[in-house]
Design goal:
Number of strands: 6
Distance between the termini: 12 Å
Length: about 80
């Protein structure tokens, strides 16, 4: 469950993830550490994009910011992970 992932995270961590499905405008299925997470983002991504995420918040909702090392052109966009 998502709670298990949250317990493994700490603020300030940098994670790698991959977009595995583009569901609709600004909604994506992202895979992080073996977890598939439905996400919402102001950034624009394509299927199979690999991204690096900086952990801003863990509770009550996961919140990440794209790191400057992201391969995407969405640097600095704030993402809310549901």
């Amino acid at each position: 469950t998502l709670d298990r992932l949250k317990k493994r995270l700490k603020k300030g961590m940098v994670l790698r993830g991959r977009v595995i499905e583009c569901i609709s405008t600004n909604k994506y299925l992202l895979r992080i550490w073996g977890y598939n997470i439905l996400t919402e983002s102001r950034g624009k991504f394509q299927k199979f994009d690999e991204i690096e995420l900086f952990v801003n918040e863990i509770f009550p909702n996961l919140e990440f910011e794209l790191s400057s090392h992201s391969k995407s052109n969405n640097e600095g966009q704030l993402d809310l992970f549901i």
